[in-house]
Every structure is written in structure tokens, then in C-alpha cells.
Amino acid sequence: MRLTDLAKHLLRPLVAGAGILVDGTAGRGGDSLFLAGNSPPSAEVYIYDLQPEALAMTRQRLAARDLTDKCRLHLADHRQLAGQLPPAIDVAMFNLGYCPGLNKTVVTDPEATLAGLRAVLERLNPGGALSVIAYRGHLGGEQETAAVAGLFSQLPADQFDGFCTDVCGRGTSAPRLFVAVRRGGPVAG
What are the C-alpha distances in Å from 34 to residues 43, 82, 118, 137, 142? Predict the structure, then answer.
């Protein structure tokens, strides 16, 4: 099972009752489709990417499934998320690194990523969850993965439950999945 599939499997029950969802890295639109397609009709999905081409691909995929009405697409760097995110979030997903099929030199970076993740964590509702897949195999990926691991290791245990997992048998460049759930009850649907 790929880590992207595992993240979706773990989040699916929360997404089904979520009102506000965030895809912090639109990429080719896979997470956006998952969030929009598995959340209630009244839910709102906020989608961010720093590449216009990624947002265009995502918009096309959402339109093909008639899901654009519940989605808000934003051209933004993770540093800008604090000023653009909704005030409360039920579920958020980040798939770091570069966007397959686009310019592989345009990658997320640790400083911006941490700013975006902190902004989401501050707004995460009780029972809400954040998933982050960090890829170590590209230039800067190891540093970004280490930065995410550092952030997750410092989450207050009285506020968050969290874990991370590695892919076995793929060496030190294998991606890692991080999940944090804010303590305090179920996501309000």
C-alpha cells in the first residue's frame, strides 16, 4: 500500500463528517479529489499550491467530477497560509516535495513547510487530523522530512496524538507519513 493510500484510508472516517478541509499541496489533484469527493455536500475544501499549473490540473480534475462548487483554489506559498486559511479546520493533507509531471526543481522547503503546518495545527478542531507525506529522495527532501519530524516530535502530548511511519525495504530515501490528531472529541459534521 502506498503512503498516499494509507493516509486516505486513515482520514476517510474523519473526512466523511468534516465541514472544513484543506489540501495544502494541490499537486495533480489527488488529495483534493479525495477530500471533495468523500466529504459532505456542504463541506468546503480549501486548496493551495504555489504553481499555477498544479492548480489548473486540480481544477480540471475537480470539474470532471462536478466538485468545483465546494472547492476554493488559492495560489500561495506555505508561508502565506496563516493569512489565508479558514479559522477552523477539520482535516488537512500535505504531500510535500515536487509535483510529478511539472518542474522538479520547484519543491517545498522546510522553513515554508513548517510555517504552513504550524498554521494548520493552530486551527485544527478537536478530533481533527493533519496528514503529511514527506519525500526524502529529492534535493532538500531529507532536510524537510527531518524538519517535519522535529515539529511532530514537539507536539504537546496533552493536545495531540500523533505518529509517523516509514516504508520498509526502500532505504533511507523512502517517504514518511506523519499524522496528528487534535485531542478533544470527534470532528463536528
Answer: 13, 23, 23, 25, 27
The answer for residues whose C-beta is within 8 angstroms of residue 73's C-beta and 6 or more apart is 26, 47, 48, 55, 58, 59
Whole-model pTM: value is: 0.93
Pairing relationship of beta strands 20-23 and 44-49 according to DSSP bridges: parallel
> How is the chain split into domains, by residue range?
3-182
Residue in this structure with the C-alpha cell 495560489, named with its chain if needed:
75
Task: For 137-158, write each residue's pLDDT tens digit.
Answer: 777 788 989 999 999 999 999 9
Which architecture, in CATH terms, is 3-182? 3-Layer(aba) Sandwich (3.40)
Separation of alpha carbons 79 and 91, rounded Å: 19
For the beta carbon of residue 42, count every other beta carbon within 10 angstroms.
Answer: 8
